[in-house]
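// run 5 | inverse folding | seed 20
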């Protein structure tokens, strides 16, 4: 455990105040001289046990409250076990798995899962890995871990959705998520790398937070075969029965006749 603002622990010095109040409230009664005790009846000294317990409990509660306040303002945080084990020689494998709509085609997602699990199998004993899924947004699937079995189980559980991957936006989102990462970053992007989702510049593929730090970028493509890439660029609803969709296609063999099928989903 660590303290973000340890100077607030000086507040524990205030624990002396409840102790002083306890001593003040339980102070013995002062004795006064009396001329004669001839006409006074003898009596036993009364011990107020209940009163003493009350004051003792009150003192404990006051001291506990002050200690809790001092500890709260000191802002304790638990050590990240994985982070504390990471060193300058530790490789942190950041695996980004593409789960966008295009991964439904030709078993691309199955290939992506196999590639990602191969990355986990190739880790050194001291390496750690975290997993992200990328589509319309970026989502953390697994925190940094050394448990290869758990990591592969999470990879195998991923499925493709209806989103569109923008690699530039994905890297920008990853930039903030890797801010507290430890060790040497090895960024793995597993995708079919559709042309419509490419970043404008290669420099956009490297998170800014990794500047001046050891970083390796590895791209894992699910298929080497050239595949047509279709991207819906615009949708115009003229009336209730007429919808015009603007579709841009690339990587089409010469002379190919395109007959696309488009599904329009409104309000979920």
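// decoded
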């Amino acid at each position: 455990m660590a303290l973000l603002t340890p100077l607030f622990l000086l507040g524990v010095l205030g624990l002396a105040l409840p102790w002083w109040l306890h001593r003040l409230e339980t102070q013995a009664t002062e004795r006064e001289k009396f001329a004669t005790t001839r006409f006074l009846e003898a009596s036993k000294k009364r011990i107020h046990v209940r009163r003493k317990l009350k004051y003792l409990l009150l003192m404990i509660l006051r001291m506990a409250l002050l200690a809790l306040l001092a500890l709260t303002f000191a802002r304790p945080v638990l050590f990240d076990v994985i982070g504390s084990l990471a060193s300058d020689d530790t490789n942190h494998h950041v695996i980004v798995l593409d789960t966008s709509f295009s991964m439904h085609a030709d078993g691309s997602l199955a290939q992506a899962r196999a590639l990602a699990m191969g990355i986990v199998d190739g880790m050194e004993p001291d390496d750690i890995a975290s997993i992200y899924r990328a589509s319309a947004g970026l989502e953390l699937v697994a925190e940094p871990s050394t448990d290869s079995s758990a990591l592969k189980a999470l990879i195998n559980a991923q499925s493709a959705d209806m989103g569109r991957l923008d690699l530039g936006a994905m890297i920008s989102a990853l930039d903030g998520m890797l801010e507290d990462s430890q060790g040497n970053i090895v960024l793995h992007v597993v995708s079919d790398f559709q042309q419509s989702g490419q970043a404008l510049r290669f420099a956009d593929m490297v998170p800014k937070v990794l500047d001046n730090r050891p970083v390796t970028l590895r791209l894992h493509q699910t298929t080497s075969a050239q595949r047509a890439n279709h991207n819906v660029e615009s949708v115009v609803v003229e009336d209730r029965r007429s919808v015009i969709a603007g579709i841009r296609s690339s990587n089409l063999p010469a002379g190919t006749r395109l007959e696309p099928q488009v599904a329009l989903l409104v309000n979920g």
